[in-house]
Write a sequence for this structure.
């Protein structure tokens, strides 16, 4: 018999994944800043790294759907709203990253790709900051929830 991880463990795992993804996105952003003056070789390396980060992003979103959404749904009062918010943010994260990959593959000049890619990466990082602040706060995801519903 397997037991579900405690909310605090889920929180720790998700935050750890967010930290790792933010580092990968920051490194990708650095590579974009170097891209402006370099040729196709640099763009190819960026494309490969972007694909690897996409795999990590997909894995993180899948993990959150599997373990965090059920924890959020159990929070008295606003749990369903938090779960819906997270689902919407996951859709937005996938959309932003798909836009980033399409931009990198677009064949446009590096001087155009670099600043737009940096903007998309900044938006993605902000998505994780929002999740950390709004959904993964220790006062939101905690082991000892108290149901204050009235009646039945």
């Amino acid at each position: 018999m397997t037991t579900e991880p405690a909310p605090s463990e889920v929180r720790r795992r998700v935050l750890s994944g967010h930290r790792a993804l933010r580092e990968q996105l920051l490194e990708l952003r650095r590579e974009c800043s170097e891209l402006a003056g370099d040729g196709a070789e640099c763009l190819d390396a960026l494309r490969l790294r972007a694909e690897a980060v996409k795999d990590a992003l997909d894995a993180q979103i899948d993990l959150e759907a599997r373990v965090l959404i059920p924890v959020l749904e159990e929070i008295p009062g606003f749990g369903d709203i938090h779960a819906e918010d997270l689902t919407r943010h996951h859709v937005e994260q996938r959309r932003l990253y798909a836009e980033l990959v399409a931009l990198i593959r677009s064949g446009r000049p590096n001087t155009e790709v670099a600043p737009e890619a940096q903007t998309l990466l900044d938006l993605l990082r902000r998505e994780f900051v929002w999740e950390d602040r709004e959904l993964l706060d220790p006062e939101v995801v905690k082991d000892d929830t108290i149901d204050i519903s009235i009646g039945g």
